[in-house]
Amino acid sequence: MNEHEKINFLKNIRLMRNIPEPYLKEIAAGFELREFWAGLAIIRNVDAVDTDNNLYVIVSGQVNIKISSPVPIDLLDLKPGQHFGEFALIDGLGRSAD
Length: 98
Fold this sequence. Notes:
The chain is of the alpha+beta class. It contains three helices and four strands; from the N terminus they run ααββββα. The protein has helices spanning 3-11, 21-29, 86-91; strands at residues 56-57, 63-67, 73-78, 83-84. The chain is elongated, with a radius of gyration of 14 Å. The mean pLDDT is 81.
């Protein structure tokens, strides 16, 4: 994804719709495209000392958000253009779900 494609993609994310383009350019510069295999955990809510304060945006595929302890509970499925991780990014308190 080139810089222009990243900026256009970010503009379509509800969380970022009102961010001015100069700031979107800065965000796009730090935007890292990562690929994950189906069925594998991207992040886990192992403990409150989670240092992964990243915002994840789904580009393709689907992500299942769940709480895994004490009994696994599926919360929702995310599709392209949706995101997760914004709470850990904003408050720095670690993950609230898996």
